[in-house]
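just leaving the lab so this will be short. below you get a single protein, a line of residues and a line of whole numbers that encode the local backbone shape. id like you to explain what the token line says about the fold, in plain words if possible. thanks a lot i owe you, the record is right below:

…
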Amino acid sequence: MSLRLKVTSSCPGTSPLWVLQGLILLSLLLTLVPWTAGKTPSVDKKRFVELRCMCLNTVSGIHPSNIQNLEVLRAGPHCANVEVIASLKDGRKICLDPNAPVYKKIIRKLLKMNY
């Protein structure tokens, strides 16, 4: 009579080496899940980043000929103020005072053209 136990697999026809390789592959795949699960497109981030006023300080001494592009942001849940962001010809972006008479006239013309 022998006290030695006979080692058998619960699945006939599988070797312990294949089971070990399968477990290693499964563990590698599961370690990649947290990295890929949290990825979101950068477009979604932009929606949530700009939920505050963009202009902290405003300028009123910029000549209109130096302005290349003008963006008017209406007051809303993100900010209680109307914001006017000007892209200058030298590449800088500055916030203009929306209450300055010169810029009020430009904003009125832009709004009439868009509507």
